[in-house]
Fold this sequence. Notes:
Blueprint: E1 11-13, E2 18-22, E3 35-39, E4 47-50, H1 57-64, E5 69-73, H2 79-82, H3 85-92, E6 96-97, E7 116-119, E8 122-128, E9 137-141, E10 147-150, H4 168-179, E11 187-189, H5 198-223, H6 229-236, H7 245-259
Helix pairs in contact: 1-3, 4-5, 5-6, 6-7
Domain Metallo-beta-lactamase: 33-191
Pfam family, one: WHD_BLACT
Organism: Rhodococcus oryzae
Amino acid sequence: MTTAHPAYAQLRQVTPIAAVMLENNPGMMTLDGTNTWILRAPGREECVVIDPGDADEEHLLRVAAVGPVALTLITHRHGDHTGGVERFAALTGSPVRSVDPRFRTHTDAGLPDGELIEEVGLAIRVLRTPGHTKDSTSFVIEGEGSVLTGDTILGRGTTVLDASDGDLGDYLASLRALIDLGTGRAVLPGHGPDLPDLQTVAKQYLSHREERLDQVRAALEVLGAHAGPRAVVEHVYSDVDQSLWPVAEQSVRVQLEYLRR
């Protein structure tokens, strides 16, 4: 019997190379929880782990137990992906590579765009996809073609751009870069279920962002060029549950910065 999403505390095989362990930390921003991905080449014992997750001891121990872990990679800095990094490195002895140097352990190596990481029979291409955060990074599993998208593309819904260092211009460029990878690539996201075709989803994301930008432009024509994020949210997101308005306000703030450059 195939394990379906969501399945907490169970290793769920998604592709011949990629399996996922779902952390039990559901919430408004994490959907069902954080997906910790485990990549293993056929016939190999060692694995590569993507995003150990939050500081959840039980989750970290379960992921460490699927090892030995040869390498840990980080998609971006948010705590639901990185809160357990230090503990996980101690449990596994694994070097941790990330764009943000704060999370690097047992190595000084970052994640240069385009680098091919060859480890334990795997070939993983680094694709920098900033926008959700400045350090957001995706990973392409060469040969298989699947793409680990972190929070750049989610398994359902759309992602929120971090108002502190997210950038809509970068995000739109990142979506176009993912579209350019072509068809038939599975999406292995940081939250939510896996999806069958990256290009289709990335095009939907791009269309959604462009539609929202048009709505914000129209709102500014009504409210005035200097309207604040909250006023724009109340105008554009009037059909959305008000409990989600604080999250929408983050996205609108980033959109306004983009439009006012």
